[in-house]
Amino acid sequence: MAKPIYVLNGPNLNLLGQREPEVYGHATLDDVRDRVTTRAKDFGLAIEFLQSNKEGQLVDWIQDARTEAGGLIINAGAYTHTSVAILDALLAADIPCVEVHLSNIFQREEFRHHSYISSACVGVICGFGVKSYELAVEALAERLGADRD
Ligand code: CA2
Question: What's the pTM value of the predicted model, to 2 decimals?
């Protein structure tokens, strides 16, 4: 059995679907989990789906992923634009990581245009809402050589 893919979600993403639907859409984080899990099953992969508002917790999960996960998908939320700690954890993780964002961060405020974590990731997908996560699963599955059922 292949190791699961960890899908990590950063601060405030627990509020998804409750506020700012014009930016982030109407789907809740549970909806995202369901869609990601379904897509991963197509490739015979399991998902460990996690969310935290705390930077250190995200770092701990990335460290766990090194031994427990086959790959990592991360929406680090606002920590994307601030966190050297998450960058360092990803660099040490030694497993393929895809950075995702619901919104197109390049159409938004200037401070969202820079990501500290992109350089530690095999790719970045942004702007497609929940579909960004599904595309990340597909890309990672291909990278991991998972077979489509
Ligand atoms: O577009 C994305 O996925 C972001 O990672 C979302 C972050 C933002 O800081 C990044 O620049 C781009 C914010 C997540 C906050 O999510 C909320 C959802 C509903 C209501 C309020 C915040």
Answer: 0.97
Give me the sheet containing 5-9, strands edge to edge: 47-51, 5-9, 71-75, 97-101, 123-126
Q: Tell me the three state secondary structure of residue 145.
A: coil
Reported as a single tens digit per residue, the pLDDT across 22-70 is: 888 899 999 999 999 999 999 999 999 999 999 999 999 999 999 999 9
DSSP for 35-58, please give it.
HHHHHHHHTT--EEEEE-S-HHHH
Q: What CATH number does residue 136 fall under?
A: 3.40.50.9100
Ligand 1, from 13, 16, 36: best to mutate by most atoms within 8 Å of Cβ? 13
Q: Is there an atom of ligand 1 within 6 Å of 19 CB?
A: yes
- Rounded to whole angstroms, how far apart are CA atoms 70 and 24? 28
Residue 7 alpha carbon to ligand 1 centre in Å: 15
**Residue 103 maps to a domain:** yes
Let me know if residue 149 belongs to a domain: no
- 101 tagged catalytic: yes
Ligand 1 within 6 A of 133 CB? no
